[in-house]
Amino acid sequence: MAQRNVILSADSTCDLGDELKARYDVHYYPFHIILEDRDYQDNVDIHVQEIYQAYYDRKVLPRTAAINVGEYADYFRPFVEAGYDVVHFCLGGALSSAQKNCQLAAQEPDLAGHVFPIDSFSLSTGIALQVIEAGDRIRQGLPAAQIAQEVSALRQHCHASFILDTLTFMKAGGRCSAVVAFGANLLNLKPCIEVDNTSGAMHVGKKYRGSLEKVLPQYVRDQLALYPKVKGDHLFITYSTIDPALIQLVRKTVQKAMSFKEIHITAASCTIASHCGPNTLGILFETED
Q1: Considering the entire predicted model, what is its pTM?
Q2: Which one of 138, 182, 190, 215 is least enclosed by Cβ atoms within 10 Å?
Q3: 33, 14 in Cβ contact below 8 A?
Q4: Which residues are CB-contacts of 22 (< 8 A; sequence separation ≥ 6)?
Q5: Which residues contact 262 (CB under 8 A, 6 or more apart)?
Q6: Following DSSP, what letter does each residue of 169-192 receive, concatenated?
Q7: What span is annotated as the signal peptide, if there is one (predicted)?
Q8: Pick from 47, 117, 43, 34: which is nearest to 75 by CA?
Q9: Rounded Cα–Cα distance for residues 137 and 146 (Å)
């Protein structure tokens, strides 16, 4: 039997950016954003600026909802019927039920053996790093099952973290208490949120104090110094909304610390931005081991 061509796909939460999405021919399926009782599709009919403006204007906070089993199955079916296998990357299973729903959809009788869902154990461009690894393997002509197996083995080499400017949105999503949020805001703390790449769960790392101009360069230096063998291929600077001058400050700090073949600057999807709030920024990269 001839090997089937491979479709590369991901939840909208992978935040790959338009250029890389086109370079690797990545298909997205959007998460749901619930704002003022209306259901939107992430970055399709609602965008981050609208979410934050609703908060600034009316103190309205968004909710997010996972992609369900039927949506995934209906999305994959045309690819499979056209003769493709699909490698699909999901938002970490510890963060969302979408990954479990994707697994169930992939077990539908007409999809089984042709759809390969991968729990990224990550979020945002922590997923994008894995998508790029899969895209490189598709170009090498590897079959979908092998790609899924090889990339799954790389998850623990992908490191995702970000600095929060405010805990208001995390509190609204039930991911931290009102007391913690109030204390952090009162003390001008900027916590580093780190993703556990063995499960996808989030935890608070180092707490920084001061302005973002002071905190972000130190955060970058700290993260890159944590690992002795940082892979020099791709680094992502991913943000919700933030002063462009701070993005350039982070880029320069990265370039001083070490050399990367490509530094990608991408905006977070609505799903990610809904939980982290404005002025969030992270660097995401791989290690060799």
Answers
A1: 0.93
A2: 182
A3: no
A4: none
A5: 233, 234, 235
A6: HHHHTTSS-HHHHHHHHHTTEEEE
A7: none
A8: 117
A9: 9
pLDDT at 171: 57
Contacts of 274 (CB under 8 A, 6+ apart): 33, 51, 61, 62, 63, 64, 169, 173
CB 42 within 8 A of CB 269: yes
Residue 192, phi then psi, degrees to nearest 5: -90, 120
Please state the φ and ψ torsions of residue 45, each to the nearest 5 degrees.
Answer: -120, 15
Q: How many CA atoms lie within 13 A of 226 on its CB side?
A: 18
Model confidence pLDDT, tens digit, residues 181-194: 444 454 578 989 99
**How far apart (Å, rounded) are the C-alpha atoms in residues 16 and 26?**
9
Query: Regarding beta strands 38-41 and 32-35, do their DSSP bridges make them parallel or antiparallel, or are they unpaired?
Result: antiparallel
Contact 8, 27 (CB under 8 A): yes
Residues 198-244 pLDDT 10s: 998 888 889 999 999 999 999 999 999 999 999 999 999 999 999 99
